[in-house]
């Protein structure tokens, strides 16, 4: 009881409370602006934490992290521009809902789903964190290869009506993922003698261009000088009926488990969790064809999945000192700044601080309901009421600033515009963009993992199948591929039987 009192007393002090509330609002704002991201914000925040109390600094990190992950859904739903890379899957059904006049409903579902995913992730961090973290020690290159292939298998769900175009898009993403120095051999690939390409194409720059620019170009083409009226936007308070909420519960449970599982795997991330959750929801649905046309299940799956990765990514960071993603690495930096050594001893030497940070991750997830429901929907959604001729230059400036401050390079702006032009052309010829993103994210992970596995086994490919965990994940991947095929065959036989 003494430890619990110490944790709660530290978290509910004035400084940490103000830090969590202010950072959550700032996080929503950062997530809602295309080009800005939580990694950038937390990296800029770290030098300022030297003079802060540890729980104040960690409360700000938790607030920015959870707030921005929800904030990315706002432009994804209203403008089809993902505010963060993890919000890409939210655009699939969120924007169609907004086009049908259901923007407020989509935002409310996204808000609730984000909060539920964040709470589930924080509970996992507090309860089963050390156990799950030890399980990651058994993951080698072979397991990570199959994790990447499991994610790639979801391409089959995202290719749309034309499988050839979808597979071509995935191949393009895989090709883009090979640019830069090979991590194993150190050989430069597809750099054409350009030094700035040695580090590869920046994922955020590509995503901002690929997903944010095409809608802006379409907006400019429309030459809208009026904007939407308040009645057209329909952002008055909406009540989601209990029957619909009850129908979302299985999606929330499934997506939370997927996000937590992805979060404890170092190097994965919320974007992968969102794609896998969306794919699982579509595969489990009785009406998979409704996904992509404005199905609330798609919004719930994507937002719950990417937010349930948040605290889970801290599990290997706090218990083993192995960051699950870039933000977890920044949290480790914040701990080191205050003289704390991450790892198993952290729980024994500073249980009050670790427990306090876990509670802060839980509380900032709950704050999404207040900040997102009251502030974000009412303030940021009003952007849609601005005329398109004003929105275009405003969005372009925000995108340019956000992309430039990532690396401080003008060349990134040209890469963004090139990716945007390519995305616009591809959309015109009905080539889906999601497989490009999935190939770009998972391709390098799969390539490096399989090569490491073969190096360890001295070229023996059976190493990829004989390890117990890799065999289980391989079978799960096979099941993911076969499930829609079997489901389609069953649907064809049904009319014949009738």
Strand order of the largest sheet: 1-2
Number of strands: 2
Mind describing the biggest β-sheet? 2 strands, antiparallel
Task: Provide the structure class.
Answer: mainly alpha
Helix content: over 70%
Q: What is the domain total for the residues?
A: 1
Q: What is the overall pLDDT average?
A: 79
How much strand content do the residues show? under 5%
Order of helices and strands: HHHHHHHHHHHEEHHHHHHHHHHHHHH
Shape: globular
Radius of gyration: 22 Å
Which segments are poorly predicted (pLDDT under 50) over 5 or more consecutive residues? none
Write the SSE topology:
Layout: H1 2-11, H2 14-32, H3 38-45, H4 54-71, H5 73-78, H6 88-99, H7 103-127, H8 129-135, H9 141-153, H10 155-158, H11 163-176, E1 180-181, E2 188-189, H12 203-222, H13 230-233, H14 242-263, H15 270-284, H16 296-307, H17 314-320, H18 326-337, H19 344-349, H20 351-379, H21 388-407, H22 411-428, H23 434-456, H24 463-466, H25 468-497
Antiparallel strand pairs: 1-2
Word description of this protein:
By secondary structure, this protein is an all-alpha fold. The chain has one domain (2-497). It is built from 25 helices and 2 strands. A two-stranded antiparallel sheet has the order 1-2. Helix 3 packs antiparallel against helix 4 and helix 7 (103-127) packs across helix 14 (242-263). The model has no long low-confidence stretch (mean pLDDT 79).
Summarize the structure.
The protein is mainly α and 498 residues long. Helices cover 72% and strands 1% of the residues.
Descriptive terms for the model:
globular; 72% helix; two-stranded antiparallel ribbon; mainly alpha; 498 residues
